Amino acid sequence: GQQLNQSPQSMFIQEGEDVSMNCTSSSIFNTWLWYKQEPGEGPVLLIALYKAGELTSNGRLTAQFGITRKDSFLNISASIPSDVGIYFCAGNSGNTPLVFGKGTRLSVIA
Amino acid sequence: DAGVIQSPRHEVTEMGQEVTLRCKPISGHNSLFWYRQTMMRGLELLIYFNNNVPIDDSGMPEDRFSAKMPNASFSTLKIQPSEPRDSAVYFCASSASGVGTEAFFGQGTRLTVV
């Protein structure tokens, strides 16, 4: 089955720093999504990507759909304490449910 | 607009008891998913429905788990009998345009089986 490898597993950064995380898949994807989960809550959709090479921003967040269609990255610029949480990538290659990565746990030190 | 609504938010039960988790998807969404989240295994897809019909339940861990979707606005996940290893956070999610599109999650039910 499809598998996603998300890295890094966790990050500790200083407030104001930029953050980058990525996902790679074992097969070609048609859709890449990035979610954020805060403690005690469900994952919330941040950015959706549907086309190879697509670069999309949502405030300080930027995500790209890799040209090979097997990878995606998420960047957060000028991190702030409320960026803390677990970030998940997800994707699929057709009319099948999303496959989720294991998540990147982000901690921001003020 | 109301998002996906799950109840209860927290459930503590004794081993052997029946547990029923409930979900109301976003109105108009035609696909519904049940996930389980643990530290060890991350987010696991248990079962999903399309237009109220179960499509794939291969993620359901054992026969003790069952799910129903009697109508477009309600689904249940039942565990009978419950065991301590079932302790996890269970999420329901729904999507608007089929199984492979953006999924919107509820707040989850944290289940503890003692």
Q: Can you describe what's shown?
A:
The complex is a heterodimer of chains A (110) and B (114). Chain A has 110 residues and is mainly beta. Chain A has no helices and eleven strands. In chain A, the strands form two sheets. In chain A, strands 2, 4, 5, 9, 10 and 11 form a six-stranded mixed sheet that branches. Chain A has a five-stranded antiparallel sheet with strand order 1-3-8-7-6, with no helix packed on it. The termini of chain A are far apart. In chain B, 0% of the residues lie in helices and 54% in strands. Chain B is globular and about 40 Å long. In chain B, strands 2, 4, 5, 6, 9, 10 and 11 form a seven-stranded mixed sheet that branches. A four-stranded antiparallel sheet of chain B has the order 1-3-8-7, with no helix packed on it. Chain B has 114 residues and is mainly β. At the A-B interface, strand 4, strand 5 and strand 9 of A face strand 5 and strand 10 of B.
Reported for the largest beta sheet of chain A, the result is: 6 strands, mixed
End-to-end distance of chain A: 41 Å
How many strands appear in the DSSP assignment of chain B? 11
Instruction: Give me the count of strands of chain A.
Output: 11
Number of helices of chain B: 0
What multimeric state do the chains show?
heterodimer
Q: Let me know the average pLDDT of chain A.
A: 94
SSE pattern of chain B: EEEEEEEEEEE
| Percent helix range of chain B | under 10%
| Chain-averaged pLDDT of chain B | 95
Query: How much beta of chain A, percentage-wise?
Result: over 45%
The rounded Rg of chain A comes to 13 Å
**By helix and strand content of chain B, what is the structural category?**
mainly beta
Kindly report the greatest chain-chain contact and the residue count on each side: A-B, 23 and 20 residues
- Unreliable stretches of chain B: none
User: Number of helical segments of chain A?
Assistant: 0
The helix content of chain A is under 10%
What string gives the helices and strands of chain A in order?
A: EEEEEEEEEEE
The biggest sheet of chain B amounts to: 7 strands, mixed
Low-confidence blocks of residues of chain A: none
